[in-house]
Amino acid sequence: MMKSEKQSIFRPDGTPLAVTFLVLPGCSLMCVACAIDPLRAANRICGRQVFDWRVVSLDGAAPQTTSGLPVAVSGAFEAGRAGDFIIAIGGFGSRGALSGPELAAFKRAAGAARAVGGIEAGTWVLGHAGLLDGRAATTHWEDLEDFAAAFPEANVRPDRYVIDGPVVTAGGASPGFDLMLHLIRSRLGMSVALDVASVFIYDQARAASDAQPLVSLGRLDGHDPRLAQAVRIMEAHVDRPLTVAAIARRSKLSVRTMELVFRRAIGESPGAYYLRLRLNAARRLVLDTREPMADIAARTGFSSSAAFSRAFGRAFGKTPSAMRRG
Fold it and tell me: What is the DSSP string of 115-184?
């Protein structure tokens, strides 16, 4: 990071990060969801507001997506309310969506923020605002040739997403989700990122620098495949938990090696992670269903309702019944 640049948002930090999403007409609804929903899930998993976002449009009206569905916004884009991280989300019709004054306002907002980003054709906004000169960047793979020609001072790459100092770009919906998982992992740790990925049954196999057209094959980027194997075994045995020794045996690891893998990647023991995985599953059932507590206890591998209630209370600070009541 250059000395003149602000401290990266991609570093361990549990304080709330204020994010402004500028949604442009003609963008993909999936791009919007993949940018916002991982942050929403992270807030829920952490039990507090670790991400605080606003969704805005250029004029305050609800922009219509390519599916015909409008996106509700809280108001018009204001340069003075950029927050920590401002992200433009656009589609193929967004290349020249901002006028001269709007581009100037966006550039002011970017200067006030700690980071600025573009997803899919939102990257064109950054380019037109002069924010990509001397920076590495990407956009949707179908647009790469035109993008490189339009911004010759940028180092245009075919990567899924690119982080170059305070400037962040992603090629589309799935790379945008990858980027948000990377943000969550960088700030809150691998464990929270794994939990967020699990909420969406999302497997991320590719690194940021992988070419966009390659298809994801099945694991969160950057972590040990032995960890992925053990976690999948745990997920398949939530209702009837296995011993750590049995999980290690099925993963073709010694117990000691599995302990080291979990400590290094997640920062906790396999047993602690397994318990938390089961309790997170229980919390979703408590909040999202009307199932009796005894059934939830059985479905998440607890021998009795009393044992379930005690473990739940220790983890979340209130009993399952109290959490359901709100």
Answer: EEEEEETHHHHHHHTT--TT-EE---GGGHHHHHHH-TTSEE--BSEEEETTEEEE-SHHHHHHHHHHHH
The answer to whether residue 228 scores a pLDDT higher than 90 is no
What are the structure tokens assigned to 277, written together?
Answer: 């995985």
Task: Give the HSE-up count for residue 122: Cα atoms under 13 Å, Cβ half-sphere.
Answer: 32
What confidence tier does 24 reach under pLDDT thresholds 50, 70, 90? very high
**Average per-residue pLDDT in the chain?**
90
Q: Is the pTM of this model over 0.70?
A: yes
- d(CA 144, CA 157) in angstroms, rounded, equals 8
Contact 121/92 with Cβ under 8 angstroms? yes
Apex 29 CA angle, 28 and 33, nearest 5: 120
Q: How far is it, in rounded angstroms, from Cα 300 to Cα 188?
A: 25
Mean pLDDT of the 24-49 span: 96
- Report the alpha-carbon distance of residue 220 to residue 192 in Å, rounded: 12
| pLDDT value of position 5 | 60
Nearest CA-CA partner of 72 in 55, 86, 85: 55
- Other beta carbons within 10 angstroms of residue 206's beta carbon come to 19
If you ran DSSP here, which 8-state letter would residue 66 be given? T
SS3 category, 251: coil
Percent of the chain beyond pLDDT 70? Answer: 92
Confidence of residue 221 (pLDDT cuts 50, 70, 90): very low
What tokens does 167 get?
A: 């400037």
Q: What are the percentages of helix, strand and coil residues in the chain, rounded to 5?
A: 45, 15, 40
Cα distances (angstroms) measured from residue 174 to each of 31, 35, 155, 200:
8, 9, 22, 12
Structure tokens at 47: 């039990």
Residues in the chain: 326
Considering only residues 93 and 197, tell me which one the structure prediction assigns the higher pLDDT: 197
235 in Cβ contact with 250 (< 8 Å): no
